Amino acid sequence: MGRALEVVAGFATNPGATFTVATPSTGQSFVVRGTDITKPTWLLAAWAFNATAGELRIRSPRLHDFFSGIRNRVTASFAMPIVQSPVNDSYAQRLYAQDQLTVELTGGGAEIDTASLLIGYEDLGGVAGRFIDVPTLQKIGLNLVTIEVTVTAVVTGNFGGAVAINSSIDNLIANTDYAVLGGMVDTRGDSVGLTGVDFGNLRVGFPAEPSLRNLTQNWFLQLADSFQGAWLPVFNSANKSQTTVDVQTTNTGGTYIVNLMCCQLLSGQVPGGATGAAVQGAGGGAPTSAGQPH
Amino acid sequence: MSPSNQIEEDFPRGHPARHDYDPKSREAMEWVRENVAPLGARDFPNGHPKAADTAGNQNTLEWAPGVDPHNQHLEPFSGRTPEQAAGVALMSQLASHAASESPVLQPLDALEVAKAMNAKRKALGRDTLTPEEYSQVLADLQSRPRDSEDAETVKKRISEQHQALTVLLGKGYPRQSALDMIALEGAPSILKRFPAE
Fold first, then answer.
1. Residue B36 resides in a domain
2. How far apart are CA A254 and CA A256, in angstroms?
3. pTM over 0.95, yes/no
4. pLDDT in tens, B60-85
5. Does one domain contain both B186 and B163?
C-alpha cells in the first residue's frame, strides 16, 4: 500500500478582515491527491501562524458544508494545531481524492499570514513513503539521536532554505534506518518540512512552534499513537544527502535551528531500506538492547 | 558520650505560656505577629517571601514562557540582550532575503527507489553510491513512463463514486461500510442496484 503523509502549507498576502484564499507553497496544492475516493485519506491536523490574529477556514462541498465548514480563530503568533491535533485524542476528517479544499485566512492588513494542513494517505497510488507505527518503533527502536540543522527561511510564504539533514552534523550510521519522532525549533514559523525519497518525495512536517517543545519533539509519535496507524516517517541514512529540511513562514523569514528527534532502528526491519555489506556491518544482527522497558 | 549542654526550654520567648511572659515585651509582640491571625488561617507565615503582606514579595510577577521576569529586557527564549537580538534579526533578515525557495520534487514510490538503489549497489559491488550514481538512479526512475489514467477517466470514476456514496449514506449505511461496498462492487454497480428515486 502506498502510505504517504504530506504537510501542505499556504499563505495569504495582506488578508486583513477579508477571507482570502491561501496560495499553496510552490509545488503544492490544496487538491487532495489520489484517484479513488475509497482509499482512506485524512486531514490529521491543521494550524496557522499569523502575526495578527485572524481566522482559518477550510471548506469543501464534499465536507460538512461549503458555507463555513471548519472555521477557527487564529491567535497571534502561536503556531499550534487549531484543527484537531495528535497532541490529544482527535477525530480525523475524511478527505476525498481530487477534492479541491478551499483554505482561507484572515489576519493582518500588511503581512503574509500562513497555514498548514497535514494530510495522511493510507493508500496513494504510485506514491509511497516508509512509515511505521508505535508498536513497531517500540520493538525495533535502538537509540535516540538528534539531527540538528540550520535553515534560513524565505520571506515569500513558501517553503524555503532546504538543507540536507547531514548539513550541520554528519553522525548517522551508514545504511541505517531512522524513525523521525518529531522535532523542535528555536524560532516561531508556520511549518517545518522534511522531504526525501523515503517519504515518497512528499513533505512531512510539524508546526514550527518553539514554546511547546514537549509537544512537537515527538509529533509523529503522537500522530501514530493518536490515530492508531503507521504515521512515523522512516528514512535510511544512505539517502541522507537527499533528505532535506526546510521551513515555511511569514514574510519575516528567519533563521531556524531545527532539532529532529530520531530513533535508530534495527536494520532490515522496515521495507525499503538499504541492503548490502555495510548494513550487516552496521548492526544487521539483533542487539539485545532493542525495544522498550517492559 | 558526654551529656549535651544545650538547654531545652518549654516555650520560646514571648510565648503566652512561658513563665516570664510579659505581653508588652518585644518578644511577646513578635510572637503575636507571627502566630496570631485575627482574619483567619494564613497561607504562609508572616515574613514568608510569598506572603501577600511581606514587603517586596514577587507575587505579581508574570512568568511568561521564555521570559525571565527579573530580566525582561532580554529576548524571550534566547536571553539575548536587545543589541544582540537586533544584530541577529538584521543578519537573519539579510539571509532570508537571499535564501532560495525549496525545489519541487516529483513524488515517487520509496520502495521502488530502494529496490533500484539496492540493484545499483549490487551491480557496482559496493554499498556507497557517489552522488552522481545516486542521482542517475533517481533520474532513471523518474524518466520512466508512469501508468497514469487520463483525467477524464479519473473524473468520471470519482463522480460516480461520490454519487454511490451519497446513495448509500441515504440508505443508512455508515460511511466506512459504504466506501467498502464501493471499493468491492464498484460505483456503477451500486448505482445500478440503487437507482435514483
1. yes
2. 6
3. no
4. 888 888 899 989 999 988 899 999 99
5. yes
**Dihedral angle at the C-alpha atoms of B104, B106, B111, B112, nearest 10 degrees?**
-140
Mark yes or no for CB contact B107/A202 under 8 Å.
yes
Note the pLDDT of residue A291.
Answer: 62
User: Is B1 contained in some domain?
Assistant: no
Mean pLDDT per block of 10 residues along chain A (294 residues) reads 94 96 97 94 96 96 95 95 87 95 96 97 93 96 97 97 96 95 96 97 97 93 94 96 96 96 94 66 45 58
**Residue B83 in domain:** no
Say whether B91 and A255 touch across the interface (CB within 8 A): yes
Q: What would the grid cell of residue A157 be?
A: 510564504
Give yes or no for B152 touching A (CB within 8 A): no
Q: Which residues of A touch B183 (CB under 8 A)?
A: 36, 38
Q: Across the A/B interface, how many CB contacts are shorter than 8 Å?
A: 158
- The alpha helices in B74-186, defined as continuous H runs, are 82-98, 110-124, 131-143, 151-170, 175-185
- Smallest CA–CA distance, residue A40 to chain B, in Å, is 9
Which residues sit opposite A128 in a β-bridge? B109
Provide the domain limits for residue B46: 11-51
**Residue A120 CB coordination number (10 Å):** 24
Domain A4-121 is found in CATH 2.60.40: no
* B110, B138, B165 member nearest A272 (Cβ): B110
Question: How many domains in chain B?
Answer: 3
Model pLDDT, residue A284:
40
pLDDT value, residue B2: 66
Fold type of domain A131-280: Jelly Rolls (2.60.120)
- Does A158 sit within 8 Å of B110, measured CB to CB? no
Of A77, A76, A79, A71, which Cα lies nearest the Cα of A105?
A: A71
Closest chain B C-alpha to A236 CA, distance in angstroms: 9
